[in-house]
Amino acid sequence: MSETLAEGRTLADLAIEVRSKNAGPFWVTMELFMRDSEGYAIVADESFINEQVVSGLYGVDARSIQIFRIPSLNVVKVSFPRPISQGSLRDRDIHAGQHHVPLARMRVLGE
């Protein structure tokens, strides 16, 4: 039995795609492209994804997080400052391509 089935569904299970990328050298943006309006309603709910949740997942100041909900596209975008600027000596993910994983693995409660 897969981990997802044993523990319930995740955001990634409800999405067409969950991705992250640079939004310039100092910001990361993550996008959740949901399969349908039902999945979007779960993700867009401010009690599910909000600044405090993202702050806990990524260790960034909640006041610096921006969340954009786009119901006409079933998309939620989350942006925050990169902890290390792109291409700096300690940057381990220059394209910010792996930042989405903690968000994608969030469990959907009540499933």
List keywords for this structure.
5 helices, DUF4387 domain-containing protein, four-stranded antiparallel β-sheet, alpha+beta, DUF4387, 25% strand, 111 residues
Account of the 3D structure:
This protein has helices at 3-7, 11-14, 37-44, 51-58, 101-104, and strands spanning 15-22, 27-34, 66-70, 75-81. It is of the alpha+beta class and 111 residues long. The chain has one domain. Strand 1 (15-22) and strand 2 form a beta hairpin. The longest helix is centred in the middle third of the chain and has 8 residues, at 37-44. The chain is globular. It starts with a helix and ends in a 7-residue tail after the last helix. Residues 1-6 have low confidence and may be disordered. Residues 11-106 form the DUF4387 domain.
Secondary-structure blueprint of this entry?
Layout: H1 3-7, H2 11-14, E1 15-22, E2 27-34, H3 37-44, H4 51-58, E3 66-70, E4 75-81, H5 101-104
Antiparallel strand pairs: 1-2, 2-4, 3-4
Protein name: DUF4387 domain-containing protein
Domain DUF4387: 11-106
InterPro entries: DUF4387 (IPR025496)
